[in-house]
Structures are given as structure tokens and as C-alpha cells.
Amino acid sequence: MKILEQELIRMGALVEDQIRRAVRSLDDRDLALAQEVIADDDRVDRLESEIERRCLTLLALQQPLAGDLRVVSTVLKIITDLERMADHASDIAKVTLRLSDEPWIKPLVDLPVMARLAISMVRSALNAYIHRSIEEAMAMIRLDDDVDHLYAQIFRDLVDLMRERPDTAAQATYLVFVANYLERIADHATNLGEWVVYMVSGERKELNT
Fold first, then answer.
1. Which DSSP letter does residue 100 get?
2. Could you tell me which of 130, 126, 113 has the C-alpha nearest to residue 14?
3. What pLDDT shows up at residue 209?
4. CB 169 within 8 A of CB 48
5. Distance from C-alpha of 158 to C-alpha of 155, rounded to nearest angstrom
6. Beta carbons within 8 Å of 19's beta carbon, 6+ residues apart
7. CA-to-CA distance for 198 and 111, rounded, in angstroms?
8. Could you give the number of structural domains in the chain?
């Protein structure tokens, strides 16, 4: 069980770093970094498969009960959310490649703030898992509202810009995609928090509706 949890934390740390590097690649127009993020998606996929195999082996051979069974089932759910976060990080890196030769239609101000919030949520969710802390999980989940508000603001600003300057539509659309990927990452972090609450309490609830 200890090795299983160590692998989960390793996967979580890699995904958190991927998100951070993906956003930095966009902000800095760093094409090499974007390519690294895209390539690392395969590492995350391999880790997910390895952890899933370990979980299934534990279920088959050790038949864990009660708390241990909840840990294994929680890990299976968490790795799915982490893999999807990594996909979104890769999607952001692909936008970096797509927009590398274009001047920004407006300064990137709110997107980096949104990214920092989303990354903080991922880190806090993993810490809540490590500490078996419902309180940490709940505090993290509440941050999703801030991410949603930023997403709505970015969306409105970019739509307004497209109306005023139709020539910005292509880039603005890609930036909306980036905001959406970050919003989805925050949603997956919320899922992690909900799974931590389930693991600790045995209750499965939708905590951010």
C-alpha cells in the first residue's frame, strides 16, 4: 500500500509540474518547453497504467477491507483525474505552438492568475490526500469558485474584444480554450478533494455544485 501511495504522489507532482510548465511556455513563448510538456504526457499515461495495475493486483490478491478498500478505490479515481489534467496541460502547450509567431492581442494578465489558482488547487488536493484531511480538501474545493469567476471574466473580455476587433477572433478563441482547460483542471482538482473526503469519511458527496 505504501508503494502505491508513493507512486500516486509521484504522478501528482509530475502533473502539477506539467501544468506549471505549460502555462509558462505560453507566457514566455517557449516552444522547447511546450514540446517537453507534450512529450511528458506519455510519462503520465505510463504512470496511470502502472498504478492501475498495482491497484488491481491489491484487490485481487489481498482483498482489502473497509478503510484500505476505500484507499485503493480512491487512488483509482484520482489517477483518472490526474491523467485528464495532464491532457489539458498538453492542450495548453499545443496552443503555445499554435500562437508562437503572433503578437498578443492583449496582455496575458488574468490567465496566469487563473493558472496559479488551479495549480494551487492541485497541490492542496494532493496535500489533503497525504494528510487524510477533510478540512484541507474542503478549503481547496472552495477555491473553485474563484477559478470559475476568473474564467467568466476572461471569456467576457475576449468575446468583447472579438466584437470590437474581428481580426482578433482566431487568437482570442485559442485563449478562451486555454481558460477552459484551466477551468477543467480546477474541476478535476475538486474531484480529487471529493475523493479525499470519501476516503476519510466513507461518504461520497458532490461538494461544489
1. T
2. 126
3. 58
4. no
5. 5
6. 85, 88, 89, 92, 115, 118, 119, 122, 185
7. 32
8. 1
Q: How many CB atoms lie within 10 A of CB 149?
A: 11
- Identify the pLDDT of residue 203: 82
* Terminal-residue alpha carbon distance, the chain: 32
Q: Nine-digit cell at 188? A: 478535476
Q: Is residue 83 part of a domain?
A: yes
Q: How far apart are CA 105 and CA 128, in angstroms?
A: 39
| Measured distance CA(199)–CA(192) in Å, rounded | 10
Identity (one letter) of the amino acid at 197? V
> For residues 31 and 96, what is the distance between their CA atoms, to the nearest angstrom?
7
CATH number at residue 78: 1.20.58.220
> Considering the domain boundaries, does residue 207 fall inside one?
no
Q: What is residue 208's predicted lDDT score, i.e. its pLDDT?
A: 64
Residue 208 domain-assigned?
no
Report yes or no on whether pTM surpasses 0.70: yes
Tell me whether residue 206 is in a domain. no
Counting runs of H as helices and runs of E as strands, what totals does the chain give? Answer: 7, 0
Give the per-residue pLDDT at 207: 67
> Which structural domain, as residue segments, surrounds residue 160?
2-201
CA 33/CA 23 separation, integer angstroms: 10
Mean pLDDT, consecutive 10-residue segments, the chain of 209 residues?
89 96 95 96 95 91 78 94 97 96 91 95 96 95 96 96 96 97 98 95 75
